[in-house]
Design brief:
This protein is an all-alpha fold. The protein is 73% helix and 0% strand. Helix 2 runs antiparallel to helix 3, helix 3 (61-74) packs antiparallel against helix 5 and helix 5 packs antiparallel against helix 6.
């Protein structure tokens, strides 16, 4: 398992290096597809843990830890896709009209993810459950403010 975590950590570093150089997209539509794809993967990995947090399925600390490790990498990805000229998609115009607020929402989500990682690494179910709930609240807060209603 330690080897798996090391591989994920290496992938995370490569991903972060790649995303920091992705400041531009050929077309606005490319940025929209990129961020929406990243958000879909985040939702999928987050959703996998919901039944555990709700006590609908047994808590497996190693599975949660591995899933959170992947989610931590994914959490870094969508932000590059909110490039100038990529207005539209599921994003409200407020993303670009309120860049400071949007940046704060990003920072809040990433801080919640850091706490979720610490909780998952601890193996403590109650700590995981609290951090999972707080991360979900940060997602909802951002979506309420910056995502079009479906």
């Amino acid at each position: 398992m330690k080897k798996k975590i090391a591989v994920l950590a290496s992938a995370a570093m490569l991903t972060l290096a790649a995303t920091s150089s992705m400041a531009q997209f050929a077309k606005g539509e490319d940025a929209i597809k990129y961020r929406e794809s990243a958000m879909a993967l985040i939702g999928s990995h987050f959703g996998r843990m919901a039944p555990v947090a709700k006590k609908e399925v047994p808590y497996n600390a190693e599975q949660i830890k591995a899933n959170v490790a992947v989610l931590s990498v994914l959490a870094q990805l969508p932000w590059a896709g909110f490039a100038p000229g990529s207005e539209g998609g599921e994003s409200k115009d407020d993303v670009w009209l309120d860049p400071e607020g949007f940046k704060q929402a990003e920072d809040d989500f990433l801080a919640a993810m850091d706490k979720l990682t610490v909780a998952a690494d601890s193996g403590d179910f109650d700590a995981f459950r609290v951090a999972f709930g707080n991360t979900g609240k940060s997602c909802k807060s951002c979506h309420d403010a910056y995502r079009k209603e479906k």
